[in-house]
Write a structure and sequence with these properties.
The protein is of the alpha+beta class. Helix content is 26%, strand content 31%. It contains 4 helices and 17 strands.
Length: 321
């Protein structure tokens, strides 16, 4: 007797292991830092010769020409800087995860005001340029909040360092970043479930990245496309639904014909052919019988005997024939 393999038990163990982890998004605030580790964002330089503070927050920007509404910023905080030569203006933070998303507050001051509001910066992941972002003011005086300026979902599950580097004669307002991490399901840390839906509100901005980045020279008004590790753009939720629907319909159309139906058709065909053959055989036999009878009748009629005039010898001779 063959022993039974406890497959349900192994399946239960596998499902238990899978369910013990979940992907969540952790936030790195510009001022409060990492919501999971508590690490703060490092701003450089803090002070510049001849112009004082380079990076200014909502609390230290009383004399700033560009001042966003702190009530609309994430956690009511933001940090801004103007990059002027020879300063190398950067914001750097570390995280461990498989994806990273960076959000700015975008200003739109008219050129006639003389206020510098062009946003142009690079994003370096682990020391290498992985993307860039450029925004030209539309002159509307309006601020665009929660603007996604960089996203990368193709990172290895390890520790990473991201640096935001402003280009010369530009301005930027860093609000917050989010990264995706795989944590135990039993963990009680405050977090946001990871989502693949990305959006941007900046209508006149462009993002250009290298092959490792998740954005590719796309107008900010269009949907931001994220890439996986192979560089293949992911589909939107609408495309996924359509694809799923198409797959289901294809599966239903390609369903195999039941075995009973096939067997019945084969047997019916064989019986039908047998009946046709039997009818043909019987018909041919009947036809042969009629032909023989006709030949005999023709032979008798073709040589009639006149019993009144013929002699007995002639009758006997004709009968022998």
């Amino acid at each position: 007797m063959r022993p039974r393999t406890p497959r349900p038990f192994f399946a239960f163990i596998l499902l238990t292991q899978v369910s013990n982890a979940v992907l969540v998004n952790q936030t790195i605030d510009d001022g409060l830092g990492d919501s999971l580790t508590g690490l703060k964002v490092q701003y450089s330089p803090s002070v510049s010769r001849g112009r004082g503070l380079v990076w200014k927050s909502q609390d230290t920007c009383g004399d700033c020409a560009i001042t966003p509404d702190r009530a609309k910023a994430h956690n009511n905080t933001w940090n801004s800087a103007t990059a002027l030569s020879p300063d190398n203006v950067t914001a750097t933070f570390s995280f461990q995860g498989t994806a990273i998303y960076v959000y700015f507050i975008i200003p739109n001051m008219p050129a006639s005001t003389g206020i510098r509001s062009i946003v142009d910066c690079d994003f370096l992941v682990d020391g290498r340029i992985a993307g860039s972002y450029t925004h030209i003011s539309d002159g509307s005086f309006r601020f665009q909040y929660n603007t996604l300026v960089y996203a990368n979902i193709g990172l290895s599950d390890s520790s990473h360092a991201l640096m935001i580097q402003a280009k010369n004669n530009t301005f930027m307002i860093f609000d917050y970043a989010q990264y995706t991490i795989d944590i135990p399901a039993s963990s009680s840390t405050a977090s946001t479930p990871a989502s693949s839906t990305l959006s941007a509100s900046n209508k006149s901005s462009t993002r250009s990245t290298s092959s490792s980045s998740s954005t590719t020279s796309t107008p900010a008004s269009s949907t931001l496309s994220a890439s996986d590790e192979s560089g293949t753009p992911s589909t939107s939720s609408t495309s996924s639904t359509s694809s799923a629907s198409s797959t289901s319909m294809a599966d239903a159309t390609a369903a195999p014909t039941p075995t009973g139906t096939i067997a019945g058709a084969v047997v019916g065909g064989v019986v039908g052919i047998g009946l046709i053959v039997l009818v043909v055989v019987l018909y041919r036999r009947r036809a042969r019988g009629h032909v023989s009878h006709d030949k005999i009748s023709t032979r008798i009629i073709s040589k009639p005997i006149n019993l009144f005039t013929a002699t007995p010898t002639a009758i006997i001779s004709r009968a022998r024939e």
